[in-house]
């Protein structure tokens, strides 16, 4: 599997995790009333899951697929923005 496909799977996992965290916070608030600990737990879990983002780098130059300059975006580059490598090609 190419680095791009792995990065896309990570982006999809983060989308699912964000929706699950949102539902978790809403459910806890509904059952227990307003609670900041539910929000804190959801944010902490999202941070822990997203630690893997640092592993998705161009194999030639090392630029991260999710960074566009200083900005992090939710979808990876298919072509490296620094060296132009097609990241969806095997090998």
What attributes does this structure have?
91 residues; mainly alpha; 2 helices; 48% helix
Number of alpha- plus pi-helical segments: 2
Structural class: mainly alpha
- Spans of at least 5 consecutive residues with low confidence: none
Number of strands: 2
Q: Alpha-carbon distance between the termini?
A: 10 Å
What is the helix content? 40-55%
Q: Report the biggest beta sheet as strand number plus sense, adding barrel if it closes.
A: 2 strands, antiparallel
Radius of gyration in whole Å, from Cα?
16 Å
Helices and strands, in order, run as HHEE
Share of β-strand residues? under 5%
| Mean of pLDDT | 92
Described by the principal axes of the CA atoms, the overall outline is elongated
Sequence of strands across the biggest β-sheet: 1-2
Secondary structure elements and pairings:
Elements: H1 3-32, H2 36-49, E1 67-68, E2 71-72
Antiparallel strand pairs: 1-2
Helix pairs in contact: 1-2
Overall description:
The protein is mainly α and 91 residues long. 48% of the residues lie in helices and 4% in strands. It has two helices and two strands. It has helices at residues 3-32, 36-49, and strands at residues 67-68, 71-72. A two-stranded antiparallel ribbon has the order 1-2. The chain is elongated and about 50 Å long.
What is the structure about, briefly put?
This protein is mainly alpha-helical and 91 residues long. 48% of the residues lie in helices and 4% in strands.
